[in-house]
Design a protein that fits this description.
23 helices, alpha+beta, Phosphorylase Kinase, domain 1, single chain, four-stranded mixed beta sheet
Amino acid sequence: MISTLAHLARSARVGFVLAREGALALVDPSVLPPAARGLIALGRLIERRGAGSSATRLAAALTRLGPSYVKFGQFLATRPDVVGMKIAEDLSALQDRMAPFPMAQARAAIEAAHGKPAEASFAEFGEPVAAASIAQVHRARRKDGTEVAVKILRPGIRDRFHRDLAAMRFGAELAERRSPEARRLRFVAIVETLARSVAMEMDLRLEAAALSEFAENTKEDKDFRVPVPDWQLTAREILIDEWIDGIRLSDVEALRAAGHDLPALGRNVIQSFLKHAIRDGFFHADMHPGNLFVDAEGRLVAVDGGIMGRLGHKERRFLAEILFGFITRDYRRVAEVHFEAGYVPPHHSVDDFAQAIRAVGEPIHDKRADEISMAKVLTLLFEITGLFDMATRTELVMLQKTMVVVEGVARTLDPHLDMWTTAEPVVRDWLTRNLGPIGRIEDAGRSVRTLVGSLANLPETVGRAERVLGQLEESSRHGFSLDEASIQAIGRAEAARNRWGNWALWLIAALLAWILFFD
């Protein structure tokens, strides 16, 4: 009861800030139930004058709500299937720039992690050069003269995220109980995915491990690299890696002045990302310009491994065949791959799905390369997912959204970049390698290993099957029964759930009015 009221109070505050900043103007009330439409109308009454354009309203509200919601907004930017492509694009520009915490706290964190003062670990330890929602970065110099980046977790950030995520989880569960569309889009799974992502981001040893794996995968790539972590000084709250001297990809004029080939850099951005996703199944999922540099040798350098994406072999094949199908206009094959991967329910028609895919692909081939927008392509794809009852695949949506960001970065370097021609060599090489004779032999090897593992577990599996069949047979003879107490408990739980759902809406409205009165 108390925790529910606490969640309602936090939700009311969130609703008030969203309403005050004008973010509710982004919601289409026609798709909402009557009670929710009433709350939206009530919220619009307290909208602040001069709230700004839609691109700034939501970002301003999330920034005002604090670090947890800034991170949530950045995460929603990877879910255009939930918030729509326009809002996702606006959220992609959300600045993860927070006020830095004091140097005294940074030094205390280093001393707690290393068991000695910062001066004992570093010859120099400078002021923060960047401060984000979870951590901030300092430039330092080790005793041997090597320059390093020191990333330090914000004090108390775990407790803050824990409280805010609990409130988000409460709202997602309430939405799923009342909305079939919310269940299809898996609101609860979205919050849980965010919770897992944040949990990993708040253990900087895991980020060091991601950077280490990423560096190992890309060590043969001559035009791409990542900073190497220092395992001896890295701890749960502290990450030490090499300092990158380079030019940010966002500074196009500086890149041009330094003599870099901008179109070649644009191609490198696209092809590097596709290599990591398709070849390695492990890719940087936050490739905005602030995380990308060009070093003196012209290599692309990606920093900040806090958000990484993974793809299994099946998903990598799916991605490669889908891209190649669009490139070659083989829409039938694109549709078949969706069905083979199990992404489209089998009761739908392959031919109907191929027709829908053609509606996405053909407009691409009728335009010049610089007129093709990956964002528009994905908008159509997400509409199709709803039409054909496709459940949300979090790993694929993150991949697709990263592709949009990567395309945007590459187009700032070369406005006429041809996304499909640039992608074709990487995709073709992977398909040739993995679907050719060598790839089939490797697939056969994987199948044999799986079969051997299954045979080794066969006696245990048979035993479990016999027990389950015995229980089913017993139940079929005597029926499935519930005692009176269980039936009454189910009835009470269902009644309480419905009661709380209705009361929740009214309490939120009352709390909003109370906040407005005392604001």
